[in-house]
């Protein structure tokens, strides 16, 4: 069950010709796929494309009605390999994933697909996770397009443009027998906007039709000698076909005046930021009308030589706005101008930073700097020589005040106790080399845990500890991998590898029943029933099947003591070979989403329900915060007491507590303090509950009154 | 209403009608910022505006800082070009769903005095870095308030989280109310309420929180955009007290002694007295005041009796050490029962079960034995280890059950013999050493004496944490010989103490001690 349900929104996918669609970017892309008569769709979740997968999953009824096959692929490689269905058959297919991490994984399949080429349109929609909010290394998908020679579209970030790019992408792919990548940036995926819909189309040939009449053509298979011919075909046939298509269909757009002395070339995705900078320089209006010539590359690869040269005609200087590095586009344009013997000055990274996101301020500074240097006459006086504005407030002091707020484990997260136990084991046995992996569990590298030295890729945690395997070693390495990473790649690359190479390290598989970090999608080991997917395949069975001999399964991670003891045993046992601990408890975010409505309903319906919550006795708490150094739970925080005798704030648990038990277990395992208590509220108690309670309260009240009548009682003590 | 205070004019021809309004929401993941963004977009569209909202969903939502961004312009039939993220110096309205996020917005340049209306909830959600300090690691809210007043064109701040909680809903509702009440957008109150109603879930609670925040924002706007001052804490120095006649008489005698103390000391001494009497008995209160008198004797009005006030505070804390008896006593009181029921929200038709988490060790066990027996065991490591194996484990005790409660009640009853127990002996010796040390120094160097008293703040926690605290306390005071005769000795002790409160192990303290060692 995914974190967010699109069950209501997917009804918008049924809109017909002429109706107005209003909604998020990803939903618009899905609608565009259906309007294009796509035959099959697959992909792998991951921000910013997770919701696209969730939309597709929630839209399975609509997809089914249209005869569209949907696949939640095991990995990005799987998704891309699936596009093989478009090699011999005229079926349109689409795959989607996060880039560049997903593209890295997919690149084997991508290269093979690109070599043989396609008959049906093959579209790869990549969510470019670059800039603020990104969780991955900052690289460009552009390089993949260049090396495999697949075409890359980067449409202007508004709904009509991205919908059109999907349509163009399929046609471009078919016209040039080449897969096409469509890049949408992180905010574009979540942008709310409008476009006019068209009717959905049934695929002219479905995958069922293809299976009924199989085809093959050895010329499309990547084997010598065909593979040598493919390379030639790419440059002799497919490239020119793509350039012709882009030019004749005017995929790239020109805005503004066509006679100015300066121009700006940009990736389509940068258009809105460029216009915003021009608006702020008083050179463009609200709608983007401007006197500066703009050449917008909705197709960033391949580039169209004569279109660019024509744009440069009569211009003294042209600025290339290309986010990220290396500056492939700028280099290509510079070479074109040079070879054509043109005198137009081409600039880019002189005015704009080589690396980093092109934020509003960066764009304003860069374009301002370019225009001041090359066309100062365009700029109004106050821009050329601005009156000195107020310095603004001094924020230097504030920077030292405002704390950083990186993402962390949610309230009640079952992974928190795993890392609390790890920290406690390290207090006993000393520091260990810890290899981390991609997933929520990577938050362990942040305070308060500060565990983990590297992260090398999805499912590669244990693989990245594989060098730390020495007969002379006195200490074992510890590595983590999540259930998502385990099924994505970890089973073979990490577990199989450790078994085969007789790795002596400790591997912890963090199993929270979902691919939680990407939004809680189901995976093979999910324990939920899924209408369209096969779940409930235990990780332990898979690990055993790989040949692991030392295997422990902890089915309640909140048992910090047991977690600690198991880790200790794994680190100290005489047994050779990988020591694998599968630590399982359901993702609390998903669990609450699933259970809360049921619990509320049960309480309303008069059923006996026990709801736990933790609390802190503020007079017992001494305010040393040791508990928080082993937790970081958002629900466990500090509060000041209205008592001048106390200097430091005490621990306090807020209303969001879900009663996971971590506080009590940690206080117990780490021998912290007796201030925690668990309060179980029994809703709709049974007669027995009530009988027991009244008896107990009477007896307890007796003892309390006896003592309290013999001592001084202070008003609010 | 919005002004056009952008430093640069819009392009000629762009009338006020075509202006783009830019609104950013800075929130902590999980606060429901997405709902707020959807509402605002809906309100704009209901009022004939074209609106675009963007966000970065995903990992950032998980309690990390996150931004939602909305642009809107009157619908003139043409599609405006909207940006997808806020720019420095180019935001009209900034909503911060938590106070430090307002600070972050200012740092990031999203708040400018010429144009930005800053609407911030003044409540705090402590970041992990603020919570894990052994001392008080919380950021200064005053600093953010002060800077915000200067940085924003208008600053509207009040506790919107509280308003939401009081109405049983999420902060998004009260943030929307504050936005509507600020009158910065050209939309009517009704259109906001329609958007909330159209959401469909928890409408009643949301509208109630919306309305309360709306009124509050308007009130504040009229009162000159100032946050309401905190009401002064009521003095509890002279508590109401009840009990048997004889005890009340004893208490009155002690109260008379407090009343005779110099005025500046009285409040703290009254609180301290109450704490120690509550901890042990009337006689213990007398001991407390006897000790306090020694500090008062050294003190004078020129110093505003600062030494005595510090003594009143820290003596009380030192005398009320955290032993098993105290914990059991606090956990078995009827007032505690009432507090838990209130905090958890137990209603008449529900039953409460309470589980306590204890983990006693041999040290706590011995501390609760008579001095002779306790020391006997402690001096025999093998015996202590043997017993520890039987004692040292987590015990979950149900204090709603009679047997669990009775056990704690019995332990609490050991109070009357406390003076004869090992822990008391250890604590008293430690206290006397520290107190004498402080007073001895105070005679030569008043401020130094005071700082030594303040070092008592370092001692807290249970078991290992307590041992670590004790070690920090000793390490700080170990600098005294090195500071002998220095005029800035008090300042150094203060710095060492503050360093000790910064991290768990005392690494900062060790660094600071090294610095002290190099002083000439």
UniProtKB/TrEMBL annotation, chain A:
InterPro entries: 4Fe4S_Fe-S-bd, HACL1-like, THDP-binding, TPP_enzyme_TPP-bd. Residues 612-644 form the 4Fe-4S ferredoxin-type domain. Keywords: Metal-binding, Pyruvate. GO terms for molecular function: catalytic activity; metal ion binding; thiamine pyrophosphate binding. GO terms for biological process: small molecule metabolic process. PANTHER family: 2-HYDROXYACYL-COA LYASE (PTHR43710), INDOLEPYRUVATE FERREDOXIN OXIDOREDUCTASE ALPHA SUBUNIT (PTHR43710:SF5). This is Indolepyruvate ferredoxin oxidoreductase. It comes from Rhizobium loti.
Automatic annotation (TrEMBL), chain B:
Keywords: Oxidoreductase, Pyruvate. One of its GO terms (molecular function) is oxidoreductase activity, acting on the aldehyde or oxo group of donors. Coiled coil: none annotated. Residues 265-477 form the DUF6537 domain. The keyword Oxidoreductase applies. It comes from the Bacteria. Residues 29-215 form the Pyruvate/ketoisovalerate oxidoreductase catalytic domain. This is Indolepyruvate oxidoreductase subunit B. The lineage of its organism: Bacteria, Pseudomonadati, Pseudomonadota, Alphaproteobacteria, Hyphomicrobiales.
